[in-house]
Amino acid sequence: MLWQRHSVQVDGSIESGIAGLMVRQLVRRFLAGNLLGRVMATYHSIVWIDHHKAVVWNFTDDGQSKSVVKTPDQHEHTHIRKSPHGGHKTPDALEYFDDVAKVLAGMREILVMGPAQTKVEFLTFLRNKHPQIRSEIVAVESADHPTDPELLAYARKYFTIFDRRI
């Protein structure tokens, strides 16, 4: 199977599927006057991120848009020294993460996916630099390198189930 559900520990906090987020989503819908929670009525986003590029799909039940953010050194094949915590931070990582955050600005209910450690480093970056975007993340999951149709199909299925649970 391409995807595997799990929990990720990020600086002492547990990031997991929908655990702990249902109350926040219910309050958000109550304040928006949408207690029935129409399926995919608001924008959903899925981000697949690794240390070379990020693919962001924003979608509703009516439409979708795709953005790709690449690191400036994507085509260079140099050895990247690991940071003390085991990740692969490069000097351009903060600029790369900031570019991805700009694409996500204003989006609600974001699913973050990807292989390896980059997705966890991205979450830490968001917590420190873009807490509003960080608060919109509903789940973090591992995924190898899905095709665009696989990624979008998984996101639509995930958010359909997610919206029905709330």
Summarize the structure.
With 166 residues, the protein is an alpha/beta fold. It is built from five helices and eight strands.
Report on this model:
The chain has helices spanning 22-31, 93-104, 118-129, 131-135, 148-165; strands at 3-4, 8-10, 13-15, 44-49, 53-59, 64-70, 110-114, 137-143. The protein has a single domain (3-71, 86-165), classed as eRF1 domain 2 (Nucleotidyltransferase, domain 5, 2-Layer Sandwich), CATH 3.30.420. The two termini are 26 Å apart. The strands form 2 sheets. The chain has a 6-stranded mixed sheet with strand order 1-8-7-4-5-6, with helices on both faces. By secondary structure, it is α/β, with parallel strands linked by helices. The protein contains 5 helices and 8 strands, in the order βββαβββαβααβα.
